[in-house]
Amino acid sequence: YGKNTIKFLRLHREGKQHFVKEVEVCAHLRLTSPQEYLEGNNSLVIPTDTIKNIVLVLAKKNGIQSLEQFAIDICNHFMTTFCQVAYVKTYVQEVPWQCLHEDGVPHVHSFICVPDGIRFCEAEQCRNGPLIVFAGIKDLKLMKTTQSGFEGFYKNEHTTLPERHDRILCGELFCKWSYGECKDFDFNCIWKKIRECILEAFAGPPDCGEYSPSYQKTVNCIQMLVLSRVSQVQVIEVVLNNTFYNVVDMKNLGLTNDKEVLVPVEAPYGSCACTLGRK
Q: Binding positions for urate (predicted)?
């Protein structure tokens, strides 16, 4: 049991410069006894309102250096404070506020919410067990307008999809990875590095791009690049929900439409998923 959707903004000041972290936290516990379920005995139950208050107090006292460290702080607090807690799991996601810039100079106290993917993390721990930390990015919308195709696929009497050697590749990406033994990691630096790997593997070199023969291959390229460059990542899961665009037929309007006007296919949509780990 636990408390979901604990939302708050943490404001940190260094002189005139302000820094913000707006997050949403879910914290769940499993107790050593199920007596509250079986007998209606609530003597061991930590109220969910208390769980919410603990999260807010930890944000006040410790700040949020990184989402991962904050999730670890929550796990550690419940494990070290309450002997009746057998398991704790914490999920934290961030609202993507970025500091406003003018001519390259950061504003001291103004921010803009940029929808370029939502950062999240999870931490979980059993009593006398290891601390397990996951991190990731979701709702990251990506598109490239060429250097993508889909050919040579299996065909039978139900196949109507034409082969394409040049198409738009567009999708919403979910990526989640697990760390090995958590040491003194710079979680912020690692997250930024993995995000850069995702963008590089999807797009390819800026002057020419990288050909994608399928959504599946693009998913694998992302995973392989992350595992090759970020040694702290042990397992990585990637889900790419596809958005297809159909070329509008403008012959009746007396126009030739060379893939200049397209409309998105809202549903149904395809989805490719893969989990890849080290040997």
A: 48-49, 150, 167, 216, 242
CATH 3.10.270.10 domain span(s) along the chain: 2-129, 140-277
Cβ-based neighbour number of residue 1 at 10 Å: 13
DSSP 13: E
Per the annotation, binding residues are 48-49, 150, 167, 216, 242
The Cα–Cα gap between 197 and 201 comes to 6
Q: What pTM does this model have?
A: 0.91
pLDDT in tens, the chain (279 residues): 999 999 999 999 999 999 999 999 999 999 999 999 999 999 999 999 999 999 999 999 999 999 999 999 999 999 999 999 999 999 999 999 999 999 889 999 999 999 899 999 999 999 999 999 999 999 999 999 999 999 999 999 999 999 999 999 999 999 999 997 777 899 999 999 999 999 999 999 999 999 999 999 999 999 999 999 999 999 999 999 999 999 999 999 999 999 899 999 888 889 999 999 998
Annotated binding site for urate: 48-49, 150, 167, 216, 242
For domain 2-129, give the CATH number.
3.10.270.10
Binding site listing for 5-hydroxyisourate: 48-49, 150, 167, 216, 242
Helix intervals (H) in the chain: 35-38, 48-62, 67-81, 187-203, 215-229
Amino acid at 225: L
